[in-house]
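Q: Hi! First time doing this. I have a protein sequence and I read that you can turn it into a structure. Is that right? Here it is:
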Amino acid sequence: MPQQSDRLARLTWFQDARVGLFVHWGVYSVLGRGEQIFWRDIMPIAEYEPLAAQFNPPGDWAIKLARQARDAGMKYIVLDARHHDGYCLFDSATTPFNAARTGPGRDLVDEYVAACREVGLGVGLYYSLLNWRWPGYWSPRRHPDDLPRMGEEVHAQVRELVSNYGPIDILWFDAALVPGEGGHGMWNLGAKAIPQTPAEFFRSQELIAMVRRLQPDILINNRAGIEQDFGTPEQRVTPEGQDRAWEACMTINFAPGWSYLRQSMANKSPGEVLFHLVDAVRMGGNFLFNVGPKPDGSLDGRELSILEPVGRWLARHGEAIYGTRPGAVYDFSQGRVQGPMFHYGMWTCRGTTGYLTLFYYPGETLVVSKVGPRIRSATLLTTGQPLQLEPAPNDRMLLRGLPETSPDPLATVVKVEFDGAPFGVAEFGGEWLDGRFLLPRPKAS
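A: Yes, that's right. Below is the predicted 3D structure, encoded as structure tokens:
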């Protein structure tokens, strides 16, 4: 287990980056019905494998995707190198069911890594420990010889991923399910799970030790059966706990549906996605927005309708996101998730500067309450316009001079300079009813 100080040093770039792109893409994309279609439709292998011949993206898919991610304000990408169907986007000696020996005839992970490096994005690789193609996964007692081979395949393929492409920034494990445990969305009632934990079955300690020997600076998530560098709440924004790095991953639709869907009727708006992004950042997490490219590697118009406006917003307001920390405005203990001024928006912090992203625009006057210390100045980050300060009872500050309507179609941001690091107050007595509430004052030195 790495020392805490080593982990914090390795996490610095990740926690500064704050926003990444998740990419689910593979043979399953050909059908346009989601990444789990092999199991969800219980397709025989003889029906599923020929789809690989139709999966043949052009040579520029990776650089186009990387540029779109960069332009959308993303700082890193995590690509699905192998999903639960067992198809590898990389050239693997362990199986012919891979991109180099089927439709593309090329190592797509190699192209992806090169594209990320060309545009300056962090390189992440997703790897599913689960492979549905093994009969022993579904019926471990009828196919006992499969069990050790499943673990050996995982170790060999992960070794290929962390050995063949130079420095990798993130290894994103998923689906640490033991044989007999069943499939996503349904239980395997005809079998009984083997009496091992995922960490025991996949020899996760050994696996991760090998990865760290080969990639000492890599970040590893928490889905190999043992905790590592960061947590991964899925389809929700939920902090992992004090001083614990985490990253919320989320689709444009309402899961399942991480990969390309030809028709999806329930999708989030740009405002909803931005709300989740800022919510994650203000609570100290990252936001990993998922896309499912078409079989040719291009993005669907629905996903571009999110990435493009959010990218424009980040280009204008990036200092309110990148490199920020939660600070002391919020107290997330005891289930508190809103905090001061949540009826207007959310605070992010850097040093003595606070940024309030206004999802509920107040009009020409913004009331700053329950947040201290003393405000020195305020600016509308969206336009650069300075705002007038007017003290009010209960240690509030009125920020006057905002436009009557929001100058940004997604969310306006107010930048506030304080006398010290921003803090919030969540508990106080009834003196506020008489206008006598005072924020805590810093102790005299």
